[in-house]
Amino acid sequence: MSDFQPADSFRSPRFAQPATFMRLPQTRDYAQLDVALLGIPFDGGTSYRPGPRFGPRDIRQHSSLIRPYNPSLKVSPFEVVRVADVGDVDVNPVNIEDTYGRVERAVGDILAANVIPVCVGGDHSLSLPILRAVAAQHGPVGMVHIDSHQDMWEEYFGNKYFHGTPFRRAIEEKLLDTRRVVQIGIRGPVYAETDFDFGRKHGVRTITAEQVAHEGLAWVKEQILTLRRGPVYVSFDIDGVDPAFAPGTGTPEVGGLTSREALELVRALVGVQLVGADVVEVSPPYDHAGITSMLAANILFEMLSVIAATRLQTQETKPHKGKA
Ligand code: MN
Ligand code: MN
To answer: Of which family is this protein a member (predicted)?
Structure first.
């Protein structure tokens, strides 16, 4: 077993010690890792309720309760992959383009060490610089995007970069293989039917929240599994989940996924070659009793479990670097 284990809760109570993610060790020595948990506390791209800058800290706080074995996927992720909390990107709170540069460099450093970045936002504008780094390493990637919004608008108040545009920019910049992009949970009022034109024109598959309800999770999982061939990025906007389960977010839309559906959708990614992930748009100031942060922390745990379960499945255990 590697050194990268959560603190043992039989020796140190779960509410004790500084709150790294799941109380994992903190390091920036990427050579020792398979997966890096990276916080990005930036919300300069929000358009309505702010607050996701406080997401990484609050999600870490609420991750302390999570126990290390995943009985749904039958995997102990930390026995399979070496995961550490690598801290936060020091963003520029008043400059989105400067922040983009900082994020792209931080994620690029992680990828260059052959480590999978699992990012904790922060608002959804951050997926663009993450994808820039991911595509620089892997070429255009497939994507599973869980969200109530497509985030493919053209601009906002004359600005190309905010949390409603990252995937339009990503497609324009050819960071995504649009034949292998699925959006799940899309719903809610928009400005006009033409808002959907960009995604349609580029062949992006969009599964609405109503389709999830009517066609069922098994059908949605089949759609996800069509992405198996080639690298895939996962972007999870917490507002894909219904505000009844995730009220702590900036632009809530009613009629969304349940928290159980959200967890099952992430688990459906076992067998997919994940090259990066994010969980974004958690806004602790609008949360109640930590339920949104708790869900986000568990979604991150499921992502780590999926990476581990996939690695077990494919038997591609990376040789240990640095440490014996
Ligand atoms: Mn959204
Ligand atoms: Mn979004």
So the answer is: Belongs to the arginase family. Agmatinase subfamily.
The answer to whether the annotation marks 237 as part of a ligand binding site is yes
Measure 125 CA to ligand 2 centroid, in angstroms: 8
DSSP 130: H
Q: What's the half-sphere exposure (Cβ side, CA atoms, 13 Å) at 306? A: 26
Taking the C-alpha atoms of residue 277 and residue 40, their distance in angstroms, rounded to an integer, is 12
Determine the 3-state secondary structure of 16 from DSSP. Answer: coil
* Pairwise CA distance, residues 238 & 247, whole Å: 9
Is residue 238 situated within a structural domain?
Answer: yes
What domain range is 100 assigned to? 21-315
pLDDT digits (tens, 9 = 90+) for 183-199: 999 999 999 999 999 99
Prediction pTM value: 0.96
Give a yes or no: residue 11 inside a domain: no
Question: What is the tally of structural domains in the chain?
Answer: 1
Instruction: Give how far Cα 133 sits from Cα of 55, 159, 183, Å.
Output: 22, 22, 21
Distance 189 CA to ligand 1 centre (A): 12
Residue ranges of alpha helices (H) inside the chain are 55-63, 77-80, 96-112, 127-138, 166-172, 197-201, 209-215, 217-225, 259-267, 291-314
Distance 11 CA to ligand 2 centre (A): 39
Residue 2 maps to a domain? no
Give which of 178, 164, 89 is closest to 135, Cα–Cα: 178
> Over the stretch 2-38, which tens digit does the pLDDT of each residue have?
899 999 999 999 999 999 999 999 999 999 999 999 9
Q: How many CB atoms lie within 10 A of CB 216?
A: 11
What is the CATH number for 289? 3.40.800.10
